[in-house]
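Action item from last week, closing it out:
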Amino acid sequence: MPDLTPQQLRKAKAIAAAAYPFIAMLGRTLTWRVEGEHHYTDLMRAGRQPIMALWHGRIFGSLYYFRGRGIVVITSQNFDGEWIARLLIRFGFGTARGSTSRGAARALVQMRRELALGKTVGFTIDGPRGPARVAQPGAVWLAGATGHPVLPFHIEASRAWQASSWDRTQIPKPLATMSLVIGEPMVVEGTDDALVETKTRELERILAGLEVRAKQLLSEKKT
């Protein structure tokens, strides 16, 4: 648990409680166009739980679409991480506490344990502080250490608010059309530093391509 005061914990609880009905209500208005979901279902049927990978700025869409599946996600050990963790739990996710700056090793150990227990895990691979669209190696390293594949995906909204934060978080507007594109599983054979670095940069390129395709899906919807 993060080192927070009782007042901060109460505030985090209140934020999560207020955000949940708003996001749930917003989510019910969204229309989805999905491509590549068979990559996810095929892995689950084969008992090979994926390591989901996305950009930090696309949390909101994924929070609603992948709700209720027990996916375990790393959240930071600070105030923001606390209310986000509480919100994730309300939507049926699990959480592992840590980040690239604090508690990373402990969080990866927990993620490895969750995979062994048959649970899917997820990473915002440029979080928690960026730089935006620059992948950190955690997801790729975990894939090499466990044999479970990384499963990249990208979400775009036809209409959205965009935060001024470092990650330019996209919050869908009511009645938006959402495109979700799931890429092919990435297998990582080992945890050698050079291999992990190469695969991490490859993952960046894959996500860039998925973003292009997700935007194309929205254009196809309008024509």
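Closing note: The domain at 6-222 is CATH 3.40.1130.10 (Glycerol-3-phosphate (1)-acyltransferase).
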